[in-house]
Every structure is written in structure tokens, then in C-alpha cells.
Amino acid sequence: MEMNDMKILAIDDNRHNLTALKAILADRLPHARLFTALDGLKGLELARAEDPDVILLDIVMPGMDGYAVCRKLKEDGRLRSIPVVFLTALRTDQESRVKALEAGAEGFLAKPFDALELTAQIRAMIKVKAANNLQWMGREQLTSLVLERTIELEKELAERRRIEAERDRLITAIEETDESIYITDLDGNILYINSAVVRNTGYSRDEMVGQNPRIVKSGKQDEAFYRDLWATISGGKTWKGQMVNRRKDGALYTVDKTISPVHDPAGAIVNYVAINHDITEHLRVSADKARLKEELHQAQRMEAIGRLAGGVAHDFNNMLSVILGHGEMLLSKLQAEDPSREKVAAIVKAGRRSSDLTRQLLTFARRQIIDPENMDLNQAVTELLKLLRNVTREDIEIKTIPADKLMMIHADRGQIEQVLMNLCLNARDAMPEGGQMIIETKEASVNSQDVKQHPYMKVGKYVLLSVSDNGVGMGENIYKHVFEPFFTTKGPNKGTGLGLSVVFGIVKQHGGYIHLDSEPERGTKFTIYFPAVDAPPDARSAVSSKPARGGTETLLVAEDEDSVRDLFQQTLESYGYKVLTARNGAEAVEVYLTHREEIALAVLDVVMPKKGGKEAYDEIAKITPGLKVLFLSGYSTNAIHDDFILSPGLSFLQKPFIPSVLARKVREILDTK
Ligand SMILES: Nc1ncnc2c1ncn2[C@@H]1O[C@H](COP(=O)(O)OP(=O)(O)OP(=O)(O)O)[C@@H](O)[C@H]1O
Ligand SMILES: [Mg+2]
After folding, report:
1. What's the DSSP call for residue 260?
2. Which fold would CATH assign to domain 7-136?
3. Which residue among 192, 311, 526, 653 has the highest number of C-beta atoms inside a 10 angstrom radius?
4. Between vectors from CA 178 to CA 176 and to CA 182, what angle results, nearest 5°?
5. What is the fold, at CATH topology level, of the domain defined by 554-671?
6. Which residue owns the Cα nearest ligand 1 atom 9?
7. Which of 3.55.50.30, 3.30.450.20, 3.30.450.40, 3.20.20.190 would CATH assign to domain 177-278?
8. Residue 217 DSSP symbol
9. DSSP state of 544
């Protein structure tokens, strides 16, 4: 019972007393309602009608006095629990008090009223009323009341249980769903997270609750994104979108997110609830699928290009054999001063170039016969390095990271050197402002997991060769095409676009794989997987792979093609030789004449303008019979060169060849008696 809405009944024949009482109550208990009666009968009537909480009763009244009113009240079952306070004069004697108590009164209040005492008494009487209520209630009444309350309580309990069960069901559903659910306050501070959030982010509830969702921010969305989000939800609308977040361990994940404002019955926003659906795995799977499809597509395309190029190159090769064979023969028969000589030489030169292109195309199309041996890739790298230093500039640092122990690969030595060379030259060209090139070898295994990622791979052990640079790198529009023949970004006459096609063909023919990582402005890394073989190096490999020995002799090198001549010169100089060069047969003879004391060996191209290698040699042999000589030819049909190749003491090397082979051959001839 609130003191505020209580009802007080005052019965007094003295109006002043009632007025005073009213004033005090208005001040102290402003909400209490006061009913007044000027005599006992009226008082009883009011008591029945209003069921007051307390009755203030004067003793001396005309007609029915206070004692009689009190007795009447206490006899009435409905009224007896209302406490009665007698209003007494200050000097009320003991006898009157006893009489009052006997009549059933609960308290006394002396007149004139003291405000404090009055309110204290009224308060006390409220408690008395409650006690009286129980005390006066009959047993039966009590039982039925208890029964009534019990039923009420049971109803209440059942309702509460129903609500709780519903709440439990909701909580279980929320806790067990795989969707992450966050509830925040209006500032975005987390009030609740379900267990999916814990599983998904790696943060515990303790770490999350009270924090701002910023805790999972990845930095992948800009500020405008979050501004838009907040504008939407604080405007009372639902925000939907995709977002990349960061787990506790730093890993990124992507979610489909819905954030909705939660309103109270009055319509004000009180919370936000966010539901996240993690689509990371889904995205990864579809990206994987797309990548696999793209890889397959790419492989099919390369296969088709290879067939086309191979077919064309094969026919070309045959025709070029005829053109070159007859051309070289014709040239060797023409006199130096013959006016047709220059023209035939030009035909042969163009034929050689075409032949070189054709050969590369055939390599790309895997139509070259390979001559594999069990070889050590580390050794091939070491060999190549010597030459590489001559064709790279000072501002390019070449670093090698060879594996300590490397299994053999079953491969064509010449082709492997070609692969290395082409990759390194590309790396060099990618670093016009200098940089670092790293050549690394190591062993690696491909397991079934890798095969799932790249279905074209086979499980097994591999020897890896990687060439990386920190040069210009490539964008997608470039690296998608690099293995295609004739794809080049280098200017006209700078690159043919066959370098990587050749690498591709060779690697494929060796049962290997090639992976390419590149990023514009960052650099490029080519990684090649060669199947490893568990065998010692071949005997011939052991011999031939011994680094070629050099020397300090002076050599005469005659070759008409500038780039080829430069390459020979650089190669031989890198092995310690002193190299004198000539651009044609006539020049070769001149150079020989001025340096004949020094020259230990002549390296002569067979087909050159002005004078061919054979003629030049014939002239030189007139001065120094038996001068050691090595003939070079772009064409190997032995029949054509039969006439001189078979002469004793004359050596022949077919172009193109790898520099180490040239160096080895030169040493071999110099060492013969
Ligand atoms: N390491 C690299 N860094 C950046 N781009 C490269 C790299 N390697 C190759 N490329 C790109 O790939 C293209 C094709 O290379 P490829 O070796 O097949 O031909 P090329 O170097 O242009 O000519 P060629 O090798 O016949 O002289 C290059 O033109 C270049 O755009
Ligand atoms: Mg190249």
C-alpha cells in the first residue's frame, strides 16, 4: 500500500479539529484522501462505504461516543481490520485509555495534533491494518485466499515458464546458428555476441563484449564505406553489404552482412543487431574453380598454338634445309669478286635467321629431339653464371642460392642451359635501372594437396629452379601471354618473343611445370619444376659437365653477324683468351696477316660475305699450313660440307650452340698435337 493513495477517515464533532487535520495531511501526505464525519453513525456509514486504511476517532461525541463507534467497528467482520486511533486530550487518564484499548483501538493521538506524530501514527497503522487483515481473517477465508493465490501463482508460474522456454529456445537457436550475431548499443559498443562470433573471429566473449566492432576491422573498406553504413542504420534503415574483416590471428574473412536497428515500442532505436554470413570459403572455392577453368583453358590454348606452330615450323624447316643447303654450297663456289656473291650471301643470311626462328618454334612445339642425361642442375647454373656475367651490366647483382644437396634431373643439357639463359636475359631486360637477379635451386615434393590445387601436376619429387628479379614486373594482360610465341613487349628488332616459348616447350618436354609470379613494379619470379631422378650423374655428364677449361692463347674469330660475333668474343674472353675479330673472310685473312705470330687458332664461320670461311682458311693455310681451325656452320647437313669437314685436322661445330660447348671445343683443338 502506497502512503500516497491511502484513505483516512476522521470522525470528530469538532470542525476545528478536522480543519487542522486536513491542513497537516495536505502538507505531509498530499495524496492521502481524507473523509470526515461529525458523528459516530455517519462515521460508521463512511467506513463501510470507503473502506479506509485508518480511522481517527474522537472519544467524546454527542450521541454515540468513540468507544461505542470503535466497538461497532470491531464487531463488523468487514471493518474490524481497519486500525482505529483515538484522538485524545493531553491529559487523558489511564482509565479512558484502558477503555479505549478494550474497545479494540490500536493507538492514541493527542490533540492538538503534532504533524510528525500524526504521520508516524498513520504509517504505523497501515502496517497494523495488514496484520489485522490476516489476524481477523477466518480460517476458511484464509484457506480460500491461499487457494486463490496458489492458483494465481501457478498461472503466473506457468506463464513465466512458457516465457522462459520461449526465451531459451530463442537463445539456443541464436547460439547454435552458424550466422554470427552481434547486438550493440547506439554507439556501436558490443552488448552481446553469439558463439558463432567466437568461432568465427577467434575472440572470446570477454574480449569482445564492451568493445566496438572496430576490433575486427581489416582496413579493406574505406572511411566512406563506414560512414554510409552508419548513416543508413542510424536513419532507421537496414544496411546490407559485403565486408572484409580480420580475425584475431590476423587472417582476413569476408562476410555478407545485414545490420538492422532495433526499436522500442515507442519507435525509438535502442540497439543495432548485425548478422554476418561468412562467405570466405565460398569465395575461395569459386575462385579456385575459376582459376582451374582458366588454367585448363590456357593449357588448351597453348596446346593449340603449339600444334599450329609445330606444323608450320616443321614444313618450313624442310624448305629451309633446301634453301640453306644449296645457298651455302653456291656461295662456297662463287669467286670473291663475283657480283652475285653478296646476293647469295644475303639469301643464306636470311635463311639462317629463319632457320633459327624455326628451330625455336620447333622447340616450343616439343618437336625437337632431346638427348637427356642424368645431370646436376647446380652445375648447369655454375656453368651459365660465367657467361651471364658477360651479358649483364654492372648494375645488376646476380645472386645464386644453390641447394646443398640436389637430386639429378633427366634432361638435355643444352636445352637446360637454354632455359636458364632465356630466363636470365629476360630478368636482365626487366631491370633497365639495375637490380638483383636471384637464381635458386632446391628440392621439393608435390603432394596430393598440391595436385588438388593444380590438377596438371603429378605427385612426386622435383628439382626446382627459380629465376627472380626485382624489375618492372608484369600485369595480368602481359603475364597471361608471355609463353605465346612472338609475344613481346620489347621494341622491334629487340626481342622475337620466342624466349619464353622455348622455355615452355623445353620444360614441358622434360615433364616439368613452370609457375610464374609477377607484380608490376615489384618483380617477377619464374619457378620451374623438373622431375627429380634418384640416380648418380651419368658418366658423360660427369666428364662434360666439368667446367670447360680456358686459356690465354690468341684466337681469330670471323663471323659476319654482329650479335653472334660479340657473343663469341665475350664467351671466349670470359675463358681468358685474347680474341681478334673479323667481319668476313677477307678481313679474317687481313687480321691473320698482321697477327700471325700470335694466333693459335682460327674460328671461322663457313658462310660469310666477301669470302667464306673455307676460302679464307685456304688462303691462310698457304702462309701457315696446318694452322688449327674450327669451322662454324648454321647448317649441319654433312653432305654439303663433306669436302672439307672430312679433311684431317679440321673441326666443325654446328650453330647455334651453347657457349660452354664452344669453349670446350676450342680447348680441345688447342690441346691436340
Ligand atoms: N622477368 C621478366 N620481367 C618482366 N617481364 C618479362 C620477364 N620475362 C618476360 N617478360 C615479358 O614477357 C615477354 C616475352 O618474353 P620472351 O622471353 O618470350 O620474349 P622477349 O624477351 O620479348 O624476346 P626474346 O626472348 O625472343 O628475345 C617479354 O617481352 C616481356 O614483356
Ligand atoms: Mg626473352
Report:
1. E
2. Rossmann fold (3.40.50)
3. 526
4. 85
5. Rossmann fold (3.40.50)
6. 426
7. 3.30.450.20
8. B
9. H
| Tens digit of each residue's pLDDT (9 = 90 or more) over 562-580 | 877 887 888 899 889 999 9
Look up cell 660440307; give the residue: 641
Closest ligand 1 atom to residue 487 Cα is 14
In eight-state DSSP terms, residue 2 is -
Q: Identify the CATH class of 283-364.
A: mainly alpha
Q: Which ligand 1 atom minimizes the distance to the CA of 488? A: 29
Q: For residue 584, what is the DSSP state?
A: S
Contact call for residues 453 and 413 (beta carbons, < 8 A): no
Best CA proximity match to 18, nearest among 33, 37, 39, 2: 37
The phi and psi torsions of 652 (rounded to 5 degrees) equal: -140, 140
d(CA 33, CA 3): 10
Count of CB atoms within 10 A of residue 446's CB? Answer: 18
435 DSSP β-pair partners: 396
Determine the angle formed by the axes of helices 40-50 and 66-75, rounding to 10 degrees: 30
- The neighbour count for residue 606, using CB atoms within 10 Å, is 26
Q: Any idea which of 165-174, 334-343, 505-514 has the lowest mean pLDDT?
A: 334-343
CB-CB neighbours of 404 under 10 Å: 8
Question: Checking DSSP bridges between strand 628-633 and strand 650-654, what pairing results, if any?
Answer: parallel
- For residues 216 and 255, what is the distance between their CA atoms, to the nearest angstrom? 12
Distance CA 342, CA 273 (A): 87
Distance (Å, whole) CA 612 – CA 641: 12
- From 437, 490, 501, 524, give the residue whose CB has the most ligand 1 atoms within 8 Å, as the site to mutate: 490
Q: What distance in Å separates the CA atoms of residue 44 and residue 72, rounded to the nearest whole number?
A: 8
**Cα 25 from Cα 29, distance rounded (Å):** 5
Q: Which helix (H) or strand (E) holds 115?
A: helix 115-136
The residue among 182, 402, 142 whose CA lies nearest residue 271 is 182
Residue type, 361: L
List the residue whose alpha carbon is closest to atom 13 of ligand 1. 488
What ligand is nearest to the CA atom of residue 488? Answer: 1
Judged on CB neighbours under 10 Å (0-12, 13-18, 19+), 652 is middle
Q: 69-115, pLDDT tens digit by residue?
A: 999 998 888 888 899 999 887 666 788 888 888 888 888 888 888 88
Cis peptide preceding 656, ω within 30 of 0: yes
